[in-house]
Specification:
The chain is an all-alpha fold. Helix content is about 70%, strand content about 0%. A two-stranded antiparallel ribbon has the order 1-2.
Length: about 300
């Protein structure tokens, strides 16, 4: 494949730091940080789209380097499915320990677990964050097509992004997201979140070497759009009201915050390269899913122990 997108040292280290920080914020957020001081702490929910942005960047880099599409796609899918099935096995062990029996068998339940559409009756603790893996898996399955369209500068890619933008805009007035449920999966989420994934690839191929001033200008414009949406449509600024079925306000606001992260590349890299902090960042970077997936366990254990 054409190797038209490369990660230099600065970009690679910036993504490593952002992924480590996003892992920490999401893990802590799911046990209370997000709703600690609403609506302001809810803005940290942008770290979820930040994950899609980073995944798009890294995936496009791997796509350009991989000798075959199949080889690249297999590695991505295995990297997503193995962490999920490990936490699924742990969940099953908790269920058996709590109920002294296996969960009742059903083909529907087995299918939902195989396709990362969890059956809540089989989970002794909430696994609400696993939706991210299901959405990312669906995006990864269509990513070769998206990346090929990007390489060819095809208008079809912009049509796809335009449809995603239109759907998230309509979501402000009509519950579009609810219309996309099929076989226990909601396909609205991968369509809308694929924007962050593609923006990550676009950033790598076109904007990773932008000066900070250009990133700041872009972030300012996106912030002004977000403010105009809030004031013009009298929207609740709390991201929690816009995350389940992402609206255009959530999409634009998250893109603004992601762009701010890119604008802060120089000070962030200075922090990342501090010798006494780098091992900590490396820990959270290499163990993203092992930290992210079990986040309900502490709160579950505490509530169980208080009974």
């Amino acid at each position: 494949m054409s190797n038209q997108a490369t990660l230099d040292r600065d970009s690679s280290e910036l993504l490593a730091l952002l992924r480590a920080l996003a892992t920490v914020f999401i893990a802590v957020g799911h046990v209370g940080l997000f709703w600690m001081n609403r609506p302001w702490t809810e803005f940290l929910q942008f770290t979820v789209p930040l994950f899609f942005f980073i995944s798009g960047t890294v995936s496009y880099h791997a796509f350009c380097r991989s000798p075959t599409v199949g080889n690249n796609l297999l590695k991505r899918c295995v990297g997503l499915l193995v962490p999920f099935y490990l936490i699924a096995l742990l969940s099953l062990l908790f269920y058996v320990a709590d109920n002294q029996q296996l969960p009742p068998w059903s083909w529907e339940g087995a299918w939902r677990w195989l396709t990362i559409a969890l059956l809540k009756a089989w989970t002794p603790f909430p696994l609400i964050q696993v939706w991210f893996l299901g959405v990312l898996l669906l995006i990864c399955l269509i990513s070769p097509l998206l990346f090929r369209l990007l390489q060819q500068r095809s208008p079809v890619l912009w049509l796809w992004l335009g449809v995603a933008l239109l759907l998230s805009t309509l979501q402000l007035w009509w519950p579009v997201g609810r219309q996309f449920w099929l076989a226990h999966h909601n396909f609205y989420k991968p369509i809308v979140h694929s924007r962050f994934f593609v923006v990550g690839a676009l950033w790598l191929s076109h904007a990773s070497h932008w000066p900070a001033s250009r990133h700041w200008l872009t972030a300012l414009l996106l912030t002004l759009v977000s403010a105009a949406l809030v004031m013009g449509l009298d929207l609740d600024i709390d991201f929690a009201e816009h995350t389940y079925y992402p609206s255009i306000y959530y999409v634009v606001g998250c893109l603004a915050l992601i762009t701010v992260c890119c604008a802060l590349q120089r000070p962030l890299l200075w922090i990342y390269r501090l010798p006494w902090l780098r091992p900590l960042f490396a820990f959270f970077f290499t163990r993203t899913f092992s930290v992210y997936l079990p986040t309900p366990l502490p709160s579950t254990s505490l509530s169980a122990g208080s009974k």
